[in-house]
Amino acid sequence: MWTPIVLVSLIALTSNLVQGQPADVPLDPIASRILREALADGIDLAPFNFTAPALQEIVAWAHFDAEKSDIPADLLRPARNATTVDVHAHHVPNWFRTIEPSDGGMPSPVWTLESQLQHMANQSIGRSILSIPKPNIFLGDKNATVAIARLLNENTAALVKVLPNRFSFFATSALPYVNESLAEVKRAVETLGAVGVALTSNHEGEYLGNPQFARFFAGMEEMKAIVFVHPANPLMETAGRPCVGKSNRVPSGESQFIILQPWHRFNACRHTKGIAEFFFETARTFMDLALSRTLQNLTHLNWIIPHVGGSLPSIIDRSIREDTAAIMEAFHTRCWWDSAGITYAHQLGGLLAYNISPSFLLYGSDWPWIPAPLVDPAFDTIATSPFLDDAQKQAMRSENVKRLFEGKIEF
Ligand SMILES: *[C@@H]1O[C@H](CO)[C@@H](O)[C@H](O)[C@H]1NC(C)=O
Ligand SMILES: *[C@@H]1O[C@H](CO)[C@@H](O)[C@H](O)[C@H]1NC(C)=O
Ligand SMILES: *[C@@H]1O[C@H](CO)[C@@H](O)[C@H](O)[C@H]1NC(C)=O
Ligand SMILES: *[C@@H]1O[C@H](CO)[C@@H](O)[C@H](O)[C@H]1NC(C)=O
Ligand SMILES: *[C@@H]1O[C@H](CO)[C@@H](O)[C@H](O)[C@H]1NC(C)=O
Ligand SMILES: *[C@@H]1O[C@H](CO)[C@@H](O)[C@H](O)[C@H]1NC(C)=O
Predict the structure, then answer these.
(1) Which residues line ligand 5 (CB under 6 A)?
(2) How much is the pTM?
(3) Atom of ligand 5 nearest to the CA of 252
(4) Domain that holds residue 150
(5) 363 lies in a domain?
(6) Which of 84, 153, 291, 397 would bridge with 188, disulfide CB 3.0–4.6 Å?
(7) Is residue 150 part of a domain?
(8) Which pLDDT belongs to residue 244?
(9) d(Cα 9, Cα 3) in Å, to the nearest integer?
């Protein structure tokens, strides 16, 4: 039944393979190094039409001198009181925005270094830990996912090197592809300087407690990794009915890359997914991590849970009824809760009611997905929160995160 589809793919791929290196790859040793090292790791970047613009962006950062740029000097250096560390901040490379024009029902925002630094100045943020947790734009397409993960890691690493005292980054994994992810994350941490790994709540519809990810987490445990989890679109399986994937192979043209893609992005209700679904996604995946005992068994992992847990706190009693002492121990000692979004008015109270110590709260802005006009109201709810005293609010912005990243980031 699939023969015609397989044939179309093969013809498309073969014509790409003979074509060799993509056009427009910058003639720069950095681009050649990236292509060469990827190939040595079994990742052929050549077939994809996002490779050339990605390499152009990486090469541009590698040669960027912030001091000589027209970014105002007072943005490059943090103000003396800019002691906040932002653990939930996203980098959106231009080439990535092209292949992911929207996410969670919201358009992908334009990201520039200057606007990032302006945001940091506005919020007294000294350091942002950047992440792009979702490389599998082309669902079911393993080679594309692995290629995007590699290019994102190289891209964010190159950017971080421009201002290493202002930025760190979380590695992008290639999940759901476990072997490739183990290799990619290890490389990003050991050779590119990532300080942890960013995952999404589900990877092609599988939540993080799924047994298929057990070997991945065992590898993260060996690395004593910090795992930042980000909500994603929920996916609905469509019983293996084929969908036509977006084409991403060079040359771009009539031949579409067709792939057996049994998922459909769905929205359970009519509201923007980034608002309605994301909070349930966080709850679902941490419930899954608890019920599969991943949280309890892997005692060297630290988790950053976004949006002070999303809707997780309100379901713990009902849905997590076995092994509760060990689960609560994990929540109390190895889970850290970021403030991203407007979460401090009422939601924080639900979390703290589980005797979570305020010393495990971290600051997150969700910039630039939370745009400038919403960042201030979000921070106002922190400033006026009845759940924390001033010292606890201050610690949430800087001391707590230093405990978590001790030995990984020089603050
Ligand atoms: C995926 O990449 C491998 C290694 O480069 C290659 O052998 C294989 O044909 C590719 N598969 C597809 C479906 O593109
Ligand atoms: C840092 O100083 C600036 C300018 O005086 C002020 O607007 C800002 O609120 C201060 N930030 C913190 C975290 O105290
Ligand atoms: C920074 O603050 C100024 C003044 O409130 C505001 O106009 C601007 O949009 C903010 N920029 C960012 C990137 O947050
Ligand atoms: C992943 O690696 C393991 C062990 O290294 C191996 O047994 C397994 O076959 C690999 N899986 C795939 C899909 O390549
Ligand atoms: C890649 O190819 C697709 C389909 O042919 C096209 O829509 C897309 O714009 C191309 N992307 C780039 C970055 O050229
Ligand atoms: C956790 O440990 C239990 C008991 O040793 C074991 O049965 C279970 O498979 C483990 N699960 C994971 C995800 O490590």
Answers:
(1) 49-50, 53, 98, 247-248, 252
(2) 0.91
(3) 5
(4) 73-404
(5) yes
(6) 153
(7) yes
(8) 44
(9) 10
CB neighbours of 124 closer than 8 A, spacing ≥ 6? 79, 81, 82, 83, 84
Domain count, the chain: 1
Joined tokens for residue 102: 């929207």
- Hey, what amino acid is at 318? R
Strand-by-strand arrangement of the 84-90 sheet? 84-90, 125-131, 167-169
pLDDT in tens, 122-175: 999 999 999 999 998 988 889 999 999 999 999 999 999 999 999 999 999 999
- The residue whose CB lies within 8 Å of the most ligand 2 atoms, and thus the one to mutate among 74, 81, 380, is 81
Residue-wise pLDDT tens digits, 353-409: 999 999 999 999 999 999 888 999 999 999 999 999 999 999 999 999 999 999 999
Q: What is the pLDDT of residue 365?
A: 97
The reply to whether 232 falls in a domain is: yes
Name the residue at shortest CA distance from atom 7 of ligand 3: 372
What pLDDT, in 10s, does the model give residues 256-273?
444 445 666 666 777 877
Q: Is 8 exposed, middle or buried (0-12, 13-18, 19+ CB in 10 A)?
A: middle
How far, in Å, CA of 40 to CA of 30, rounded?
A: 15
How would residue 205 be classed by pLDDT, with cut points 50, 70 and 90?
A: confident
Does 78 reside within a domain? Answer: yes
pLDDT (tens digit, 9 = 90+) per residue, 225-257?
999 999 998 887 665 544 444 555 554 444 444
Q: What integer pLDDT is reported at residue 265 of this predicted model?
A: 64
Among 161, 133, 158, 163, residue whose Cα is nearest residue 148: 133
In 10 A of CB 145, how many CB atoms? 26
Ligand 5 centre from 86 Cα, in Å? 34
Domain containing residue 257: CATH number: 3.20.20.140
Site of tokens 């594309």:
144
